[in-house]
What we know:
The protein is α+β, with helices and mostly antiparallel strands. It has a domain at 1-30. 56% of the residues lie in helices and 13% in strands. A three-stranded antiparallel sheet has the order 1-2-3, with no helix packed on it. The model is unreliable at 1-33 (pLDDT under 50).
Amino acid sequence: xLFLLFxxxxxxxxxxxxxxQGYSLNTISIDGSGVILxxxxxxxxxxxxxWFENIIGYASISNYNAVLSNLLRMGYPSIVxxxxxxxxxxxxxxxxxxxxxxxxxxxxxxxxxIKGDMSSAISLFCNIINTSHHPTNETSNLLLDGFCHKxxxxxxxxxxxxxxxxxxGFQLNHDSFLILITGL
Length: 184
């Protein structure tokens, strides 16, 4: 199979697939890591899970993030959390250990927020700060949105006041204020 890539935007590509049946043209999305997965992993969660489980210990964090992000996009937050747990538990050898990065934590915060488990999402947010990473606006917005969708706008406002204004010095963007206004 031959892959020819043509950039469309920073987050999508047109991929021309050459197979025995001829050519087919598909547009696939990629996350910020720039990892392109095989096309069969983009719409089939069983293939994505199998592929993920088979590469545990042999790939970079960006490969795992691409699969987790895609599974989340397909609507499987429980599977995302389960696979992240498997990845965490699978590394008995420190040389093969793949450490999560800011993208991994953002994906997991989104999965927890979708499931309504905001205490775990906040815990991951604190993990980001404690490891000297700087959370992005997207990460903060996921938490604000998670609280508002759960009907806990007062907790979103507490998060805004305590974490963002008083302690973090984070800058909110237009989406942040739109989430808060909609929640209120």
